[in-house]
């Protein structure tokens, strides 16, 4: 076997050790010089100090150098062990892509560089043995290269398959992106449609609220119109009632006018006939005129007579006794009128008749609600005219 020559790393380590030891020996000298230049003491003192304390500095330097040497030695041994392990496991699948460690080639190169030294030191058998080992290593390297080529081909095929799969995956991703874009577009369209529908629903709800308000306002208006129609119907009924009342009052006025005319005619006739009657006979004439007018009113309008009866109940109940006496007086008056008509009593009768008419006018004003002739009695002038007419008739007789 050929001994291995020291490598560049070993040489560098040895050089570093030498430098360290030299620095360790030079450091005390440097310290002594620095102290001497600084303090400029006696040579004897500094020499004794160097001899007494320098040994400790030298020992510390040696110990430090030993530590450095052991550290670098362990590091070199670790590198050598790593190289041997790489030689043993150079065909592992983890180091397929790394450059192979060709230690045999290095040995061959070293042999080719120093052939004469080998011939001098070793014999031919050792060289042959080394050549055989080199051949075996070459065969192993060839087999490893073939395996590496096969693995490279397999890796290329796998890489091609991976590329194809990658292309397929990219196509699928593109298709998925396209589908997602289409779906997002469709979702956007659906969102817009739903937004429009929501707006339409809101508009419909607003219209519904407006319609409900209009319906409520229309219902209020209908209620108002119904109440107005009811009020109008009430007013029309009241108006009709008022018209009927006016008609009734007109009829009453006409009846009162007729009664006035009849009363005036009867009074004139009685005044002509009873020219010489006394005061009692004048009262009897007034009662008889009133009764005659009531009888004619009942005969002319029975319905109005019934209403007048209801209105005159209170008056008739108060004057029942007086009417009985007046009936007796009317009978006496008729007898006196038929028996004696003297000229001297006519003047007295006319005077009493005028007073009686004034008295009856006041009495009729007090009983205005009984339907008598209040405002239609003849005035004083008309009575005077009737008096003059009666005088002329008496003179003619």
Automatic annotation (TrEMBL):
Protein name (record): Uncharacterized protein
UniProt source species: Nezara viridula (Southern green stink bug)
Keywords: Coiled coil, Membrane, Transmembrane, Transmembrane helix
Compositionally biased residues, Polar residues: 303-319
Coiled-coil ranges from the UniProt annotation: 124-179, 232-266
Parts of the chain that traverse the membrane: 16-37, 49-72
Positions of region (Disordered): 296-331
Domain of life: Eukaryota
Bias-annotated ranges (Basic and acidic residues): 320-331
């Amino acid at each position: 076997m050929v001994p291995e020559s020291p490598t560049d790393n070993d040489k560098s380590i040895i050089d570093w050790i030498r430098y360290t030891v030299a620095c360790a020996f030079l450091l005390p000298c440097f310290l002594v010089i620095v102290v001497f230049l600084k303090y400029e003491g006696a040579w004897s003192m500094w020499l004794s100090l160097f001899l007494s304390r320098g040994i400790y500095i030298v020992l510390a330097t040696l110990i430090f150098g030993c530590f450095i040497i052991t550290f670098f030695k362990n590091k070199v041994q670790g590198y050598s062990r790593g190289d041997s392990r790489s030689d043993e496991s150079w065909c592992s699948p983890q180091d397929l892509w790394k450059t192979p460690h060709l230690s045999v080639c290095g040995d061959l190169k070293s042999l080719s560089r120093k052939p004469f030294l080998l011939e001098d030191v070793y014999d031919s058998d050792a060289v042959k043995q080394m050549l055989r080992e080199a051949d075996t290593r070459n065969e192993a390297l060839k087999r490893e290269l073939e395996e590496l080529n096969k693995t490279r081909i397999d890796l290329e095929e796998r890489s091609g398959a991976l590329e194809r799969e990658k292309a397929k995956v990219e196509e699928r991703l593109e298709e998925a992106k396209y589908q997602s874009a289409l779906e997002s577009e469709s979702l956007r369209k659906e969102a817009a449609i739903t937004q429009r529908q929501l707006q339409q629903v809101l508009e419909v709800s607003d219209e519904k609220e407006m319609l409900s308000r209009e319906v409520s306002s229309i219902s209020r208006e209908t209620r108002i119109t119904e109440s107005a129609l009811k009020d109008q119907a009430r007013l029309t009924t009241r108006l009709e009632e008022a018209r009927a009342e006016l008609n009734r009052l007109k009829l009453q006025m006409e009846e009162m006018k007729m009664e006035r005319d009849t009363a005036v005619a009867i009074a004139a006739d009685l005044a002509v006939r009873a020219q010489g009657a006394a005061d009692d006979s004048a009262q009897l004439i007034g009662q008889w005129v009133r009764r005659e007018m009531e009888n004619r009113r009942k005969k002319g309008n029975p319905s109005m007579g019934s209403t007048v009866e209801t209105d005159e109940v209170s008056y008739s109940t108060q004057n029942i006794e007086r009417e009985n006496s007046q009936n007796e007086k009317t009978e006496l008056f008729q007898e006196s009128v038929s028996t004696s008509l003297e000229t001297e009593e006519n003047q007295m009768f006319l005077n009493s008749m005028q007073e009686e008419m004034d008295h009856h006018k006041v009495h009729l004003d007090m009983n205005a609600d009984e339907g008598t002739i209040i405002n239609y009695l003849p005035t004083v002038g008309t009575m005077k005219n009737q008096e003059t007419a009666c005088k002329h008739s008496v003179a003619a007789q």
